[in-house]
Design goal:
GO terms for molecular function: DNA binding; transposase activity. With 114 residues, the protein is mainly alpha-helical. It contains 4 helices and 2 strands, in the order E-E-H-H-H-H. It has a two-stranded antiparallel ribbon with strand order 1-2.
Length: 114
């Protein structure tokens, strides 16, 4: 975490896809060189000045995306978010249409009764 100037509140740093990919490559390279996974994430994170858990999550997500372990891929997660957003928009549109239909239906009733 990066400290916010003077406020005492930590702020999350945003890492670019290139920074994340480079960290994942470094972890994988180090694992291959050492022949072990033990301590590699911590070592790379410390060297780059990144959070250990951030790097650990990037490596895990890269393993999922590459099909090495089970899980939801980045592409699948993105598609789910897009579908959820579309669903929210459609629900709002439906609600607006229901209100409009109710309003115009009541208006037609009033005109018909005159």
């Amino acid at each position: 975490m990066v400290s916010n100037q003077g406020s005492g509140k930590p702020t999350a740093r945003r890492y670019s896809p290139e920074e994340k990919a480079a960290a994942v490559r470094m972890v994988r390279t180090l694992r291959a060189e050492l022949g072990t996974e033990h301590g590699t994430v911590h070592r790379v994170a410390t060297q780059l000045g990144y959070g250990v858990e951030s790097v650990r999550m990037w490596v895990k997500q890269a393993d999922v995306d590459d099909g090495n372990i089970a899980g939801v891929t980045t592409a699948e997660a993105r598609r789910v978010r897009e579908l959820e957003q579309e669903n929210r928009e459609l629900r709002r549109a439906n609600e607006i249409l229901k209100r409009a239909a109710s309003f115009f239906g009541a208006e037609l009733d009033r005109q018909h009764r005159k």
